[in-house]
Fold this protein.
Amino acid sequence: MRVVLHLVITFLALSTFLPHLAQAFTSYANDFVNPNYMLARQYPGNTGGAQFSILKWADFLAAQGPWTVIDKPVVPPSGDLHDYMSWSPYSWPNCSALGNTTELPLPQVWAECPYYLRDGLFNPDVRMINNTGHFNAMADAVWMSSLAWAMTGINRYAQNAATFLNVWFVQNSTAMNPNLMYSQMRRGPGKGQLGAHTGELDLKCMAKIANAVLIFRNGKSIHWTDSLDQGMINWCQRFVEWFTTYWIALEEAAAPNNHGSYYYSQLASHYLIVNDIEGARHAINTYFTTTYMSQITANGEQPLEARRTRPYHYRAYNLIAMITNARIGEYLGLDYWNWTGNEGAGIKAALDYAMTIPPGTENADELYQPMAGVAAKYGDPDGKYATFLAKADTRYPAAPYFLWSQPFSESGLPAARPGWSPKRDSAAGKSALGGPATLFAIVSVVLGFFA
């Protein structure tokens, strides 16, 4: 094992100069990997490319951190920079009723002009306050670092993740207050100065955070200290109290579309962090017995997502929320993979239907991650999922999601083998090893042992 880890460290140093070998970074909307699977290190031999990408993504993301909620140029209405804040992405001002003859200062526009919703039309000034982007980047960095640590045992990955979590959630000078009072504010007078229930979606990536916490906690990382563990527990307990009682959050819990799906994913994730297993089970049970029941029609369509201005995106977006909830449930001993809604259709039917819809001008790759998840869980006996992905993206076996969407075929594509080239194909392509042995193969390819 020491030899393998020594070679992995060498590989990581060299991999800085070999970015073309890993798949380009993509922020997944959500997901959850069974911590026991990651910590066992018995990964299928066709996942070497995916492992390589995870290591590269972990390094790429860690170099950008840490992130803090107080890093924003506009102070929330509370006057406290520690309050999370974001603006509704589809809200636009109409200042015509103010009677101004000159251009208004931006703070006056934000406070006094009525704002109106224009679904799907993104207001670019939303990016002035990037708590949302910073939280998502932090969650991705923590998640990828936890997967990289589980794969290799290299402590700097755990140390990076611990630092990022401490800065965002625990350290007094930088920590976020445990609420979303000002998330996706529509702006303007009155209630526009409070958040909207849609803003609860901003912390949807708590599933990634919970996943990382469980990996470090269960794997007994030396960097997962008692003080950090207790700090995360304290923060999440306070957040759950707000999330399950405040009117804005309760409106989100009642949302019948993807917002409801992500609400319960987020709630279950917080419960996992505070070690409330029954609370987490209750959240997943509630989702699948209420919200989920009316989300899919008999033919697999998701009508509440299909009516949006970007239906391809929203179908895939809700699909991965469903899959994340099913994966969390499975970790908790619940089986909702074959659970069907009021019209007799479930997750697989929703994916099968979504496959039939051309993406048009939307991003086709949003469906690839949930497709692999469905193929791994329900099987792919006729190869339709693997064939679809092989035609759409010849590098899909190098995507991180391929590591935990198993068993699933790599379609014989070279991307399953990190560092592939025609010269190395005959040697590098024959490994059928998993876990540390696959990492040894990754290192060997990079160092030219198979050249």
